[in-house]
């Protein structure tokens, strides 16, 4: 029996058809663009998510029998819909959208910054879905007055597929300050104050069944009516599940447009500059981190230079550790953890006329590695115990990026046979609904990236400079950011 997994990502929607042995039989994608209506604002028309899902389902499930469907998506996003499930405005995307700074300041004053972290697991930041809801209420009261329900990409697909209005616990735990991590449920006093009039969805775990495909959804997608659909979750957590990185001590590193880290713990930990969330599996918790840009910088350099990725990677490999004296801050869209500064900006230090595009590309990859190390050291300071790292995502297909990250962090990284990412994790969750699957059986380790001692020693010195670069340039970056917002 086949299962279908679909993920709604930042730059594309991806789907996989997976056989009972875990082999990907078919895959497909639909590229899309993100709307940027102003500085620090990232939006998408949520209606595209369902259209792309239906197209992918029809393409992938042709001539085969699908037994279950799994879904995931970028997040936390805020898609508010009216009583008829029509979006009242485009969805506001996750932490890359930094518009809600005034709402964050106000909520911290009203609710107490320490109390928000204690109850919700995280400080308010651009990642917090609750602050984005408050922005809509403050800035677009006419639209907000029509809003009745809250969706994210995964729950929007579930609604269209099954008619069920549900959200998974993990996604809810990123709706700070609406969710109580200790109590595993919505915190009604704050939810009513921050999101008045919104009927918050009932909560389930990502691998639980949300419902079954309706006849109407079957007509639109070509899927059989009556097959089960998972509740689903946010993409990074589906990716962690796809490679089995959901046990205490595990660290998932997701290489993509943005870089994401998920460390699993057996107890609820909190720390300024990290997201403390509920895990994707009952009984687990996470300390998570994320960069606002990583692969996005390499795409920017590719577009500027006109060269292809393979050419740039080859030139970056020739550049060598340290990029011939270049050091980059990868804060090209502000930064999320552990800096939590939406007004941070990218910096390239040490440029001379002798530097090449290969040096710049190498510096971008190294900047990601330094940011990953910064997050890992913060996780450890919070009480996390990182014992095993697993790499996933498109960036694992080339050896250079993962090698640089291992050299900088000193951590070996497992790379599994299948690194497709969240869509594969969603398929694995779907397989669980019909009694099949399991990450270790489906997706064994292909190889391990090990740190190189000589390179690690060189990067230790550069990392100390990296930590000094942000505080040395932050005030100037903030002034420039303010000018960009005028």
UniProtKB/TrEMBL annotation:
Keywords: Carbohydrate metabolism, Kinase, Transferase, Xylose metabolism. Its EC number is 2.7.1.-. The keyword Kinase applies. Residues 252-431 form the Carbohydrate kinase FGGY C-terminal domain. Residues 2-240 form the Carbohydrate kinase FGGY N-terminal domain. The keyword Kinase applies. PROSITE patterns: FGGY_KINASES_2. Pfam families: FGGY_C (PF02782), FGGY_N (PF00370). InterPro entries: Carb_kinase_FGGY, Carb_kinase_FGGY_CS, FGGY_C, FGGY_Carb_Kinase, FGGY_N. One of its GO terms (molecular function) is kinase activity. It is an enzyme of class 2 (transferase). Belongs to the FGGY kinase family. PANTHER family: SUGAR KINASE, XYLULOSE KINASE. This is FGGY-family carbohydrate kinase. It comes from Nonomuraea harbinensis.
């Amino acid at each position: 029996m086949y299962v279908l997994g679909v993920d709604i990502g930042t730059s594309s929607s991806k789907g996989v058809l997976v056989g009972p042995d875990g082999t990907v039989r078919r895959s497909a994608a639909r590229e899309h663009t993100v709307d940027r209506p102003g500085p620090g604002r990232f939006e998408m028309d949520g209606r595209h998510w369902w259209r792309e899902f239906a197209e992918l389902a029809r393409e992938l499930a042709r001539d085969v029998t699908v037994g279950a469907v799994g879904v995931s998506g970028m997040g936390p996003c805020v898609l508010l819909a009216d009583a008829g499930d029509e979006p009242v405005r485009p969805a506001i995307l996750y932490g890359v959208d930094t518009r809600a700074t005034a709402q964050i300041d106000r909520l911290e004053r009203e609710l107490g910054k320490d109390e928000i972290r204690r109850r919700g697991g995280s400080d308010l930041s651009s990642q917090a879905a609750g602050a984005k809801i408050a922005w809509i209420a403050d800035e677009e009261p006419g639209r907000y007055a029509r809003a009745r329900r809250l969706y994210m990409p995964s729950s929007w697909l579930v609604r269209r597929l099954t008619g069920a209005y549900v959200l998974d616990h993990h996604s809810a735990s990123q709706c700070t300050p609406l969710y109580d991590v200790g109590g595993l449920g919505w915190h009604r006093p704050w939810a009513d104050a921050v999101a008045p009039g919104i009927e918050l969805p009932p909560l389930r775990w990502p691998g639980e069944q949300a419902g079954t495909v309706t006849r109407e959804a079957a007509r639109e997608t070509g899927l059989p009516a009556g097959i089960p659909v998972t509740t689903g979750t946010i993409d990074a957590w589906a990716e962690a599940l796809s490679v089995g990185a959901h046990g205490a001590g595990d660290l998932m590193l997701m290489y993509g447009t943005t870089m994401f880290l998920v460390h699993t713990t057996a107890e609820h930990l909190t720390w300024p500059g990290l997201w403390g969330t509920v895990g994707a599996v009952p009984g687990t918790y996470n300390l998570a981190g994320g960069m606002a840009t990583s692969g996005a910088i390499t795409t920017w350099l590719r577009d500027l230079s006109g060269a292809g990725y393979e050419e740039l990677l080859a030139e970056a490999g020739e550049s060598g550790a340290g990029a011939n004296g270049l050091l980059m801050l990868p804060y090209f869209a502000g930064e999320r953890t552990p800096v939590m500064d939406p007004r941070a900006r990218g910096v390239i230090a040490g440029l001379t006329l002798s530097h090449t595009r290969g040096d710049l590309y190498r510096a971008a990859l190294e900047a990601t590695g330094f940011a990953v190390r910064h997050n890992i050291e913060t996780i450890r300071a919070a009480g996390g115990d990182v014992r095993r790292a697993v790499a996933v995502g498109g960036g694992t297909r080339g050896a250079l990026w993962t090698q640089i990250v291992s050299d900088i962090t000193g951590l070996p990284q497992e790379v599994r046979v299948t690194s497709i990412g969240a869509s594969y994790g969603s398929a694995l969750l779907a397989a669980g609904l019909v009694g099949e699957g399991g990450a270790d059986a489906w997706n064994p380790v292909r190889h391990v990236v090990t740190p190189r001692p000589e390179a690690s020693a060189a990067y230790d010195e550069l990392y100390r400079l990296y930590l000094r670069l942000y505080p040395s340039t932050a005030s100037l970056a903030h002034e420039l950011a303010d000018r960009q917002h005028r």
